[in-house]
Every structure is written in structure tokens, then in C-alpha cells.
């Protein structure tokens, strides 16, 4: 004899509505506490982006609000054809590629160092992480005044101590402005790369490395044939996340050079277009292009992160 529950019997009676599924109710009950955070995120992030997207299609100068008119894709065309904006795009690409690659290389060297056991490793690791914990504007001010200053900066002080009174005293920011900005960003982002790669090194299979050494493999062979292939996903993740952050960097350019001497990247140019030229539509179009580029990079970054999780779960 088969016993049927009342809910199931009610669901099978013709003409009677099916009872709500408990699993669906439970799912809504678990998602309900997240709704305020989701609504807040939409209000804070998505609505301003939609407003920026709408403004980007208008010829809108804040000094002449009554002359606002629909411009279509004219602002985007001007962003892609204006010489100053194209120069800022090239500066952004050059700055991003240089900072990401150099900080990734230095981070790999530091990660390999910290992967070894030695006395005081915890203290060294804490000191190496410290630059990444500084407020970006404070780090840029430190490089501008404490290190690059031609009169009392540390770099010229070292040159004077080593070479005497006849040692050159360069004005680092004026003579090599883009390199000055890159040096400050590399110093700040190398610990970030180091942490990612150190996590990758510590996830290696130690038995595989030990077996390779027992077979007579040298340190270089272990690094090339075992460590580097294992770190490929972590290197990709560092490149993608670093690119997302550095493409949007504004603090170092604004603080160290104020966008002068050929260092104006796209975020700084957007700042000039919006706050100084008051071209709201043109600045919004440039901002949308930056957001779309960041979304493309973020998509690749999320794919790399998901593949890392799948690899960890499958072990």
C-alpha cells in the first residue's frame, strides 16, 4: 500500500493549483538578506554608470548648460581621433605595460626568496608587503619630496655622499618624468605581485620537486620545467589584476607630475576634460571607454581565477 503526502496529493488533483516548492522558498529566504546590499551596489555603481553613458551622447559643456544637444557618437569619435587623447591612451598603455612587467619580475624574485626558509623570514615578508599597504597619495608624495627632490631628496643625497661635491644632482622629475611615475608605481605594486606568486609557489607539490632533485635536476631546471609552468596561471592573474588597477591610476600622475611633461594618462586627461574644460559629454565618453576596457580585462581575470579554483578543487 502506497501512502501519499497531503501536499503531493493536492498537487496531483486536477484543477487544483500546485503547492509552492519548499526548495524555491528556501532559496528566496537565503537570498533575502543579500537584497539590501545588492540594491545599494546598484544605486552606487550602476546608476552613475548609466548616467555617464547617457551624458556621453550629448554635446554638454557645463559653462553653457542651455546649449546642450544630442551628439550621438561624436564624443567617442573625438576621443579616438583627438591627438591629445590618443597621446594619453598611448601613455596609459606604456605606463601599464612597464609597471606590470617590471613589478611582476621583481615580485617573482622576491617570492622565490621568501619561499625559502631562513631566519627572520616573517619580518622580511612584513617589510616587503608594507609599500602595498600605504595610501597611494601618501606613497606618491613620499617619492616626490623624500626621494626625487633635487635639493634634499634621498637619491641626490646618496649621489653627493658617493661622488662628493662634484657629483651630478639631477632633477629626476623634470629630466625623466615618466620613469619617475613608473618607479613609484613599481615600488608600490611589486608586493602585490609577490603575494600572488608566493601563494602559487606554496601550492606546488613538494614531492614533485623532491623527485626532480633526486633525479639530478638543478635549481634552474626545476624552475624552468616545474615551477614556471605551475606559476603560469598565477602570472596571468597578476598581469590581469595589475593591468586593471594601473590603467585606472590617477594618484601618482596627479601628485608627482600633475600630468605634465608627457605623463598625462587617460584618467588624468578625463579629469582635465571634466574639471578644467567642463566638457561633460567628452569626459563621459572617455570614462566609458576606460570602463569598457577594464571590464574586458576583468572578464579575463575572472576566468583565470575560476580556473585556479577548479585546479585546486580537482587536486
UniProtKB/TrEMBL annotation:
Pfam families registered for this protein in UniProt = BPD_transp_1 (PF00528)
Mind telling me what this protein is named? Sugar ABC transporter permease
- What is the membrane topology noted in the UniProt record heading this document? Multi-pass membrane protein
Q: Which PANTHER family match?
A: BLR7065 PROTEIN, INTEGRAL MEMBRANE SUGAR TRANSPORT PROTEIN
Swiss-Prot/TrEMBL keywords: Cell membrane, Membrane, Transmembrane, Transmembrane helix, Transport
> What CDD domains does UniProt report for this protein, alphabetically?
TM_PBP2
GO BP annotations of the record are:
transmembrane transport
